[in-house]
Amino acid sequence: MRTQVAIIGAGPAGSLLSHLLHRSGIDSIVVERSSRNHVLDRIRAGVLEWGSVEVLRAAGLDARMDAEGHVHDGAALVWGGREAFFIDINRHVGSHFMSYGQTKMQEDLYAAADVRHAAIVFEAANVEVHNPLSDRPSITFDVGGIAERVDADYVVGCDGYHGAARPAIPDTVLRTFEKEYPFGWLGIMSETPPLPDLVYANHANGFALASQRNPMLSRYYVQCSLDDDLADWSDDRFWSELTTRLGSTVGGQVVTGPSIEKSIAPLRSFVAEPMRYGNLFIAGDAAHIVPPTGAKGLNLAISDVHYLSRALTAHYDGGDDEYLDRYSEMALRRVWSAVRFSWWMTTLLHRFPEQTAFDQRAQEAELDYLASSMHAQAAMAEQYAGLPFES
Ligand code: RFL
Ligand code: PHB
Fold this sequence. Notes:
Layout: E1 5-8, H1 12-23, E2 28-31, H2 36-41, E3 47-49, H3 50-58, H4 63-68, E4 70-72, E5 74-79, E6 85-88, H5 89-93, E7 97-99, H6 102-115, E8 120-121, E9 125-130, E10 138-143, E11 146-151, E12 154-157, E13 175-190, E14 199-202, E15 208-214, E16 217-224, H7 235-251, E17 259-273, E18 276-277, E19 280-282, E20 288-289, H8 297-318, H9 322-349, H10 357-372, H11 374-385
Parallel strand pairs: 1-2, 1-12, 2-8, 5-14, 12-19
Antiparallel strand pairs: 3-7, 4-7, 5-6, 9-10, 10-11, 13-16, 13-17, 14-15, 15-16, 17-20, 18-19
The structure holds 8-demethyl-8-dimethylamino-flavin-adenine-dinucleotide and P-hydroxybenzoic acid (PHB).
């Protein structure tokens, strides 16, 4: 097979990239390891920055998102047994964010791919990248026991943290930065009405978060130990821990019910530099991971792909390669800003096993400062809402 852009991975980054390229008249073939249903069944992010909403709108992916997404003016923080404190993003930076599940966005992307009869190969095994430094890079894979090859002008790895693209960049070129956190998040989904706002809690027992998917679907998380087993967490234990950590006022508003999904995810920060090697580019989780506390993972995947589709469009439209040449540097500026913010929010809101009494007082002082300073709130609001794209 021959195409202009070979894309590895049909998660949000890969499927959005192929959609945006198609709108610019650029051909792509997407090769995905899992089945379509497996990709659609993964429950992950739930918050879109306004810049992400605008990218999706401009790409014609707005109908269901605007009908079913829930627009928020800000998010609440609660700690130390006090009343919840609202970070008013609209007031501080005139922006909003939207609750719209990654699952729905992925469904919208696959529905749009069906309409344009997009080339997405599911259940492709043993994907490998070849000759990334040549002007004819290619990928090979096996599907249904048959070996296939796609020749392309460019290969883009949108294949997540464990993908095949990043390892194709030699160790002598790739520099990685990593931080692991000594805890995880236990998340549940329940068919109960959510709280009206997202609420982030810092409690002596650990972090908690109340989020949502739709008027009858709630998403909640509690910080847990990395050694915890799902079997340790009955629904009763989860609800009791969640409502304790959210405090009596907010916790008292939580409507409980049976969980329909329950999983534990570790937290880590990871960045790989550069995000280009010859004619191979990497985007989304293939290049970087953030702990979910700042709700940035999906948004970074969208912003990388926005930069990359603009760069490829400029290349194919008029041979202008400036954006392609600046892709890695431009994407990494946004990545590091989100990595720093996600690390900061994680540090502010979680209990660390080695946390000393000093660390704890410093954390409380920072939360007090946030509650009392318009400037601190504005800085948090600006970063939570998401920084603008570079032109
Ligand atoms: P994805 O979504 O991981 O998609 C990558 C796709 O590539 C496929 N793939 C391969 N295909 C071919 N060959 C290979 N060798 C391949 N290896 C992998 C995979 O099957 C998959 O379909 O990356 P993408 O597109 O960059 O999107 C990024 C987002 O999915 C991610 O940043 C967020 O979901 C992160 N994240 C969360 N972010 C939030 O903002 N809030 C959350 O609550 C939240 N929860 C999560 C998460 C990520 C998780 N992961 C990755 C373990 C919960 C989990 C469990
Ligand atoms: C979610 O709804 O899954 C969610 C929301 C905010 C976060 C992380 C996850 O910071």
